[in-house]
Amino acid sequence: MAKAPDFPTRLLRGYAAFRDQRLPLESSRYKVLAEAGQRPRTMIVGCCDSRAAPETIFDAAPGELFVIRNVANLVPPYDPDGEYHGTSAAIEFGVMGLKVRNIVVMGHGRCGGVQAYIASRNAPSDSADLSPGDFIGKWISLIAPAEALVCDDPAETADAQRALEFASVRKAIENLRTFPTIRSLEEIDEIELHGAWFDISTGELYVLDQATGRFSVAATPIG
Amino acid sequence: MAKAPDFPTRLLRGYAAFRDQRLPLESSRYKVLAEAGQRPRTMIVGCCDSRAAPETIFDAAPGELFVIRNVANLVPPYDPDGEYHGTSAAIEFGVMGLKVRNIVVMGHGRCGGVQAYIASRNAPSDSADLSPGDFIGKWISLIAPAEALVCDDPAETADAQRALEFASVRKAIENLRTFPTIRSLEEIDEIELHGAWFDISTGELYVLDQATGRFSVAATPIG
Amino acid sequence: MAKAPDFPTRLLRGYAAFRDQRLPLESSRYKVLAEAGQRPRTMIVGCCDSRAAPETIFDAAPGELFVIRNVANLVPPYDPDGEYHGTSAAIEFGVMGLKVRNIVVMGHGRCGGVQAYIASRNAPSDSADLSPGDFIGKWISLIAPAEALVCDDPAETADAQRALEFASVRKAIENLRTFPTIRSLEEIDEIELHGAWFDISTGELYVLDQATGRFSVAATPIG
Amino acid sequence: MAKAPDFPTRLLRGYAAFRDQRLPLESSRYKVLAEAGQRPRTMIVGCCDSRAAPETIFDAAPGELFVIRNVANLVPPYDPDGEYHGTSAAIEFGVMGLKVRNIVVMGHGRCGGVQAYIASRNAPSDSADLSPGDFIGKWISLIAPAEALVCDDPAETADAQRALEFASVRKAIENLRTFPTIRSLEEIDEIELHGAWFDISTGELYVLDQATGRFSVAATPIG
């Protein structure tokens, strides 16, 4: 039977700080975007990880980023089988309903989902921390096809987990292209797909060069 | 065929602002939580909506909030059928892997997912904006059982969409309690479930009183 | 730089409950055993696990149990090399200083230390949750020699982790016998060694029959 | 050669009392925390002394306290030299694996370990009760650096052993801060360190005010 605990004080204090400091600066954005509807240009597919918040990393204002967050920032391949596909539904909502211009798949370092996948791959019969659950093992099995996209550059494979985090971003972008609408929109230059990876240890942002397939530290725009 | 577009300049500028202004203040948090692992106390189930970013609304530091975001902040009922359940997997990861203490389902005003559900319910044969897609219609059908939880208070039902947004938060909390581990942990006071709703027009935060089932504007903590 | 946080409220409340309810019943024991010194008859080597507190499981009064708790209730073999051996020092203190009559090694189900050992054995190169630390990997490597004591009874090996938990208790008792003083005292019937295993799920206590090497549910004493 | 003595009757009776009286009240906690894993918020570093059981003193439920117990509740300084460090391994397990929020070092009055240290210091060539052992003398030599932290307040130094017991708690907290992960987590307010001292004669609990470095009787929380 459920009790009725108080709302967490830490969150109430955080909200009070937002209300007193940031809200006054953004109140017209909130008001206008409430009336006119949201118009984000960018969709982010990010991870639930508490250290990788897209709005923080991109210093985003209210209304800028439409954000999907699941474990390990995965995009399943297009598979309209009538089941409940939360990520695919959100992608569809952003692309068709909100008409976003960019989709950024953003991975990050020390991802617990990728780590759990590696652990389960290395010891499939093992009672790893996360494997006994009902859902997480199945979900992270979506990472498996990304193994084929691990780069053979020694500089990249030296860190096996990071190499797979990179590869998983590449695979998610491939999977976005299995959505017919996205593939078609990309062909006529109406939508752009991007990959990024955030180093939660140093705060560095890496971006994917799709011509070469390589990640490198983001250059700062001039001016 | 994929081109290689430049990474969006707006995001690079935003990242540069983060890197130059906020990162220096948080660099030790990032570094420590990279080494020691994340330790969030709170999981948020929020909406992808660009105007309802949990880290912004709760003024959260890196590492504080484990955040799931899907369209309309839905929690499907527990259903371990071997399919890919992104939201359920993320809930499991947060509860069992990260041992979060609180789960907050946060709805918000003018939710496009709830709006699409109402449109499809009112005009089932209609070709509403979002219905022709392959996934979104199925996903938002998860809202239907929430209708039974709409409150009959005239003050609440005066705004039919908001009333359903409130009800959907109540239903998501009910569905969280269909996860055996969560229900069990709640019974022994090891986890708390909460509901909230953010008014994107005014910036007001409402919290759910589970004893009465009513939402009201959050009181500010003292001190 | 250290702040000066308040002492955790939960602990202060727990202490107040002890002081108001149990202390009055035990105050003479505390007072006498403070003056006369402690005289425990039993030493427990238990695990740090929060679900396996010896005083709780054995309903012990103050002064009854001298308790060593380390990860996975391990006893290293006798090795007087001049290093800091916390467990061996405590064993020595109990046997020689306090003259305990019994030593009970108490394992328990779902032991995180045994689980981590199994994970590291199955995937030695893996970045398992606990392996990157500086100490835990080395400590749990003390479990390895217990593998030779896993029983070949199918009823026992069906649960591989529990089988190793049992075997580790057997090994800890073997290691206690590598301490010359303990071995000598046991030979003249001045000290007894015992093994037990607590099922944290059901609350059942298993005891080791050293004649057969098997664990079975503890029989209740009559009268 | 090992005999097969019966399991001590006193322990079986104590277990029967636990099983018949307390287990029914806590069976859901045991069951849930077996399935979901332990989630203790607090780690206690306590002494093996039979009169200073943390679960008793803090009236703790199963799953609340992760408890390390060694002679004199010592924390060695961080020293990752590849040896078997049971206490350091347990600290690491609690901080990194279980993500505990508080670490409490709890000393107590009339500590046999501190007493033995004082005896060996005062009469180094003496054959004190405990000195001839192979391990205890070395272990309690870890107390020596605490002498520099004895307070010069006459009220405190009047009881020389208690003064050193207090100082040893202070030193253990200092040593916890030599663990890089703990120091870092404390700096970002993700972990709290506390000191306490239990008077086994009267049952009074003292807590350390780290701002002043002084111990005083714990105030009871209100409400």
From TrEMBL, chains A, B, C, D:
InterPro entries (alphabetical): Beta_CA_cladeB, Carbonic_anhydrase, Carbonic_anhydrase_sf
Similarity field: Belongs to the beta-class carbonic anhydrase family.
Reactions that this protein is recorded to catalyse: hydrogencarbonate + H(+) = CO2 + H2O
E.C. code: 4.2.1.1
GO MF assignments: carbonate dehydratase activity
Organism for this UniProt entry: Kaistia dalseonensis
Cofactor(s) listed: Zn(2+)
Protein name: carbonic anhydrase
Keyword NAD: no
Keyword flag Lyase: yes
CDD domains: beta_CA_cladeB
Keywords, ordered alphabetically: Lyase, Metal-binding, Zinc
Pfam family, one: Pro_CA
SUPFAM superfamilies tied to this protein: beta-carbonic anhydrase, cab (SSF53056)
